[in-house]
Amino acid sequence: MIRLCDKNDENSIWDIINDAARAYRGVIPEDRYHDPYMSMEELVQEIEDGVTFWGFEEDGELCGVMGIQDKGEVALVRHAYVRNARRQGGIGTKLLLHITKITEKPILIGTWEAANWAISFYLKNGFTLVDANEKGDLLRKYWSVPERQIETSVVLCDAKFRRNAR
């Protein structure tokens, strides 16, 4: 079942993010990986900054989360993670489909360039990579990330974004 997460879910969201982000160890640049990947303070700040989390719950346990953040003319998919033990079971796809249905806005997604599995997932679900020149502009406009992260990331977009960009 997909449901809106609330304050009571913060510990579970934090746990899912940090469990799933272990996949980045040894893949993304060493200077960008740390353990835990996201602190509780960072999570709370993300929520205060407008990231709304949706969760996939099964048997009373939150198994995956995906955030969406309204940024005016676009919406950002933020912090899309599924517990490692539950990956490859369709949870991420169900969450992404839900997120895309609840917003009419064009959607952008940022992820690590080296996270081939994440890029493949989004491509399989109809998103396309934006070109390298556009990527930097979009990351600077809609995200608050350091230049080092911009250098080592990609941005994907949905068809609504491509239509609006013409």
Automatic annotation (TrEMBL):
It comes from the Bacteria. InterPro entries: Acyl_CoA_acyltransferase (IPR016181), GNAT_dom (IPR000182). GO terms for molecular function: acyltransferase activity. Its EC number is 2.3.1.-. It is an enzyme of class 2 (transferase). Residues 1-144 form the N-acetyltransferase domain. Keywords: Acyltransferase, Transferase. It holds the Pfam family Acetyltransf_7. Signal peptide: none annotated. The keyword Acyltransferase applies. The keyword Acyltransferase applies. This is GNAT family N-acetyltransferase. It comes from Paenibacillus chartarius. The lineage of its organism: Bacteria, Bacillati, Bacillota, Bacilli, Bacillales.
